[in-house]
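ARCHIVE RECORD
Type: protein–small molecule complex
Small molecule: flavin-adenine dinucleotide
Source of inputs: curated submission
Record status: active
Notes field left blank by submitter.
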Amino acid sequence: MSTQTPALYPAASPRADLDTRALAGELSRIVGRERVHAGAAARQRHPGDMSWLTYVHAHFGRPLACQDVAVTARSTEEVSAIMRLASRLGVPVTPVGGASGVQGAANANCGGILLDLLAMKQVRHLDRTSLTCTVEAGMLVRDFEDWLNARGLSFTHYPASAEWASIGGCVAARGSGVLSTKYGTMQDHLLSAEVVLPQGDVVQLPPIPRHGVGPDVTQLLSGSEGTLGVLTAVTVKLRLLPSHRRFAAFRLDGLGPGIEAGRRIMTDGLRPAVMRLYDKDAAVKSLERAVRAGLDGETMLIMVDGRHERLVAEEAALCDEICLDLGARSLGAEVGIAWWENRYAFYHPPHAPQLPQIWMTMDAAADYARIRAVYDAVTGAIRNAADPRWGLTLKTHLSHWYEWGSMIYPRVVVPEGPDDLDEALALHDSIVRAATLAALEAGGVINDHHGVGLRLAPYLEQQFGATGLSMLRRIKAAIDPAQVLSPGKLGL
Ligand SMILES: Cc1cc2nc3c(=O)[nH]c(=O)nc-3n(C[C@H](O)[C@H](O)[C@H](O)COP(=O)(O)OP(=O)(O)OC[C@H]3O[C@@H](n4cnc5c(N)ncnc54)[C@H](O)[C@@H]3O)c2cc1C
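STRUCTURE (tokenized, with ligand):
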């Protein structure tokens, strides 16, 4: 039996000092009684996010979802009134969008109010000339994309969780989607925001994202995970729907040539919308199930899109040339097309992991000079972190590429974890710790796009340094002196 206590995941039982009925009554006066749920009903309606941490804590009867009250807001005015009330009473507030986070961030583990934003889903303004749109934070990514597609437009932010994730949650978690290599991550899509501060003040950030007028406050909110303000609406970049897509797939002779192909493609200024390099285990044991193409080693999928057929054909041909020049063998477009058509299947039964498995993704980013070292260090550390009797499996791909570097995306599954919560957490945490420290030591950062939540909160100091973390804490203290919003999250 492990002696490690799960102090990383403090789960307060609903606050004994709180008059839940009185709080629910005051909230009902703001939003109406039918939008307020108290006690067990609040916790049943919102059992927490989609991280393994949430499921395993709930399974063993120590849920991380400890909200005393859950309230659904429909307007910025309601959010503002809720924050004023919470601030006056000193009650913690945890904003929640689609609760699809995988780091435990959207759990109200300190009790208080869970602020559900999914009813805020209006499109406020579409600018077809500038290709921008102001949309409320609770709009789901998939619904937004469908709405735009019907108008010949695209959001181009396609997380694999599009059916669950809200736009506000994507900004707050600083996410990324499968098309990020060409269209950028969520922070690149974010142009402006409306935000409610902890005391209830509403701030409209500048409508134009480019200016030399002081620091970029809009971007301060990106990745803030509900600690600095509640996003009620955001203005995002749109694109015209592409009319042409070209797919390619290659078998590479090792990961090194694959990384070099990706590097050359990016530094040559080519911009495939999708570029996914699978290591051997990921190709053979995971991708193969979706594409059924007899994969037997490192595999690269590429998709180039655009509105000009000749340009798309030329860009695709140049990407092909670089891969072939590095000794790659073409597997044909069908493999790429099959992945595109089945790309959401990985996240649904029977492919999605479930208890008693332990599962996690440990994405890390690094520049091209260090990405291979980070891959070797992180995958080696993960393999060594668990005793072989646990039968840990690891499949890694690189799926978001930048001009300066890339990221690795290791997916870890322990087929059957310990049947004791503390032991299961200890095993999970030892893998997280090993991977995180290995990424840092090899010169990477500890996350590319899944955020921090509860899982990575202990490593903020290693990521930013003591003075860097202190700076972040002072920003938090200045904006939220009473620590009302998501207390304890982000290691703040
Ligand atoms: C199967 C699966 C696949 C996934 N694939 C991807 C992927 O491809 N790319 C990716 O980036 N992520 C992915 N994720 C993770 C997750 O979907 C993203 O982090 C997503 O951005 C979370 O959005 P959400 O609305 O569900 O946020 P939530 O989980 O509800 O919240 C996440 C954080 O944001 C805060 N928050 C939410 N809304 C607001 C708001 N309006 N104002 C202030 N703070 C807010 C919460 O307090 C919390 O800290 C995946 C998750 C799953 C389960």
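CURATOR ANNOTATION: The pocket of flavin-adenine dinucleotide is lined by residues 49-50, 94-102, 105-106, 117, 137, 159-161, 164-166, 168-170, 172-173, 175-177, 225-226, 230-231, 347, 449-451, 486 (CB under 6 Å).
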